[in-house]
Amino acid sequence: MVVEEIMSPKPIAVEANQSIREALRRLITDDIRHLPVVDDGVLVGMVSDRDVRGLASDVLSGNELSEQLARSVSEVMSSDVVTVDPETEIGEAIDLMIEHKIGALPVVSDTQLVGILSYVDVLRAARSALEE
């Protein structure tokens, strides 16, 4: 089985120059934990609910929340992103998620973001396999 068979295609993403407020809105509204960050369709980073939660310490230390949320998402994203391509074997993708302690892998084909593989996608596939 390969990633393309179980990934979520056409993932929700934000542009690198968008605000943290917009990223947070997307995370909450779309009930997701991982948000790819793109620049003209090319993956440049990932922002997670954990990254945004990190702003809480800034706010608690006296920084104004509205100032923090107005900053660019590129300031809080992880730019060293582990990716897979659509033809990557699921076992290899799982190994990457475990090794890097991450909950989602962007799926990239020819530098373009084409999907996202989350631990939920993997669990759904495992559940289906168990039912067979």
List the main descriptive attributes of the protein structure presented here.
132 residues; alpha+beta; 3-stranded mixed beta sheet; 42% helix
Commentary on this structure:
The chain has 132 residues and is of the alpha+beta class. 42% of the residues lie in helices and 23% in strands. The protein is built from 7 helices and 6 strands. The chain has helices at residues 3-6, 20-29, 49-53, 55-60, 65-70, 90-100, 119-131; strands at 8-9, 14-15, 34-39, 42-48, 104-109, 112-118. Strands 1-6-5 form a 3-stranded antiparallel β-sheet. A 3-stranded mixed β-sheet has the order 2-3-4. Strand 5 (104-109) and strand 6 (112-118) form a beta hairpin. The longest helix is centred in the C-terminal third of the chain and has 13 residues, at 119-131. The relative contact order is 0.23.
Quick overview of this protein structure:
By secondary structure, the protein is of the alpha+beta class. The protein has helices spanning 3-6, 20-29, 49-53, 55-60, 65-70, 90-100, 119-131, and strands at 8-9, 14-15, 34-39, 42-48, 104-109, 112-118.
**Unreliable stretches covering 5 or more consecutive residues:** none
Note the main sheet.
3 strands, antiparallel
Strands of the largest sheet, in order across it? Answer: 1-6-5
Oligomer: single chain
Q: Give the C-alpha Rg.
A: 16 Å
- Residues in helices, as a percent range: 40-55%
